[in-house]
Design brief:
The chain is an alpha/beta fold and 265 residues long. It has one domain: TIM Barrel, CATH 3.20.20. 43% of the residues lie in helices and 14% in strands. An eight-stranded parallel barrel has the order 1-2-3-4-5-6-7-8, surrounded by five helices. Helix 3 links the parallel strand 3 and strand 4. The radius of gyration is 17 Å and the shape is globular. It starts with a strand and ends in a 12-residue tail after the last helix. The structure holds 1,3-dihydroxyacetonephosphate.
């Protein structure tokens, strides 16, 4: 059974005091949410502070980016080992803001994905189409290209341990959420792609999150889709109550039999 993962991407928001308070508030309330995995991804400079606040609890900490080399002359970059050292166990890779604002390619995301796994970090690899691509009927093609390129060269075990986030670019920060049917269609396609490249069992193990204007009032319907295994939450993850309300929607749905691998009990 895939345990739902509710991840907060704080992006370049909050400050030191705010990050500490937000992490503390989520951590204090987290015992009621054991049916889902909870993850927060603060800005890099607050990673260590946030991971210390979360220490001893169940809320996990992740980073929003990393570089693929282990060390060396890469001014301004950080390695996977450095993130682990600061308390991260997950890293978001290939977010659309990095792809479209910073020029990250599938090849770069792939190098980062392999390096994250090699160091023992769990990558959350993001894919998603632009509005123009959706309107041109190219969603499936874009998702295939991004996922094949970004996830190349993974063993079966590492593929199963990778988290994918489908984030349609037109739904990020816009308040325009994908319908549960639109999300489910892409998630099911992604799982089929993995099944065809690996096998059904591996595909059933991969957690695929939806991201893009997830809010407390739309979370239950999105998370209720058979192939939606959690959420990558931006704006709403900056308020502990909203983030936990989304987690609550995942908690209610966690025992759902539809999330069990085919043939599972
Ligand atoms: P919003 O939830 O603010 O739309 O952001 C989604 C996102 O980009 C998460 O990575």
């Amino acid at each position: 059974m895939r345990k739902p993962l509710i991840a907060g991407n704080w992006k370049m928001n909050t400050d030191g005091a705010g990050a500490t308070a937000l992490a503390r508030s989520i951590s204090e309330q987290s015992p009621g949410y054991g049916a889902v995995d909870l993850l927060v991804c603060p800005p890099l400079c607050y990673l260590k502070t946030v991971s210390s606040v979360l220490a001893g609890g169940t809320v996990m900490c992740g980073a929003q980016n990393m570089y693929w080399e282990k060390n060396g002359a890469f001014t301004g970059e950080v390695s996977a080992a450095m993130l682990l050292d600061c308390g991260a166990t997950f890293v978001i890779l290939g977010h659309s803001e990095r792809r479209h604002l910073m020029g990250e390619t599938d090849e770069m995301v792939n190098k980062k994905t392999l390096a994250a796994h090699a160091a023992g970090l769990t990558p959350i690899v993001c894919v998603g189409e632009l509005l123009a691509e959706r309107e041109a009927g190219k969603t499936a093609e874009v998702i295939r290209r991004q996922s094949e390129g970004s996830l190349a060269g993974l063993s079966e075990e590492l593929m199963a341990a990778t988290v994918i986030a489908y984030e349609p670019v037109w739904a990020i920060g816009t308040g325009k959420v994908a319908t549960p049917q639109q999300a489910e269609e892409v998630h099911a396609d992604l799982r089929k792609l993995i099944a065809s490249r690996y096998n059904a069992e591996t595909a059933e193990r991969v957690r695929i999150l939806y991201g893009g204007s997830v809010k407390p009032d739309n979370a239950a319907e999105l998370l209720g889709q058979a192939n939606v295994d959690g959420a990558l939450v931006g704006g709403a993850s900056l308020k502990a109550d909203d983030f936990l309300a989304i987690a609550a929607a995942g908690t209610l749905l966690a025992p759902d039999d539809t999330k069990r691998p085919a043939g599972g009990t």
